[in-house]
Task: inverse folding
């Protein structure tokens, strides 16, 4: 279910582990969402449709970057979509954060 939500994050937007967990009805399970996102990298060769680079921590930090093939891949992917990143921090975080509970209205 985590991957289904992550696939819906629009280009140029980001969401958090906690917002995904809350949307899925497990508000206190942001670490499990993080674990699932870590698993998504193991399947990245077979399923490129999981934009894991769009999931960050609640402060807009690129805490998952160590799970990409290079330390800069997550930032590079975000920047290619127009997301401003400086020192592993999303710059306009509050204006581009995507909350599935608000956007999907389910």
Result:
């Amino acid at each position: 279910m985590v991957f289904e939500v992550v696939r819906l994050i629009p280009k140029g937007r980001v969401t958090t582990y906690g917002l995904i967990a809350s949307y899925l009805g497990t508000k206190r399970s942001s670490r499990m969402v993080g674990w699932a996102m870590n698993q998504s990298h193991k399947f990245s060769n077979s399923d490129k449709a999981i934009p894991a680079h769009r999931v960050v921590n609640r402060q807009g930090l690129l805490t998952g970057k160590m799970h990409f093939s290079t330390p800069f891949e997550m930032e590079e992917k975000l920047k290619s979509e127009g997301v401003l990143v400086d020192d592993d921090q999303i710059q306009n975080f509050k204006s581009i954060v995507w909350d599935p509970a608000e956007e999907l209205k389910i």
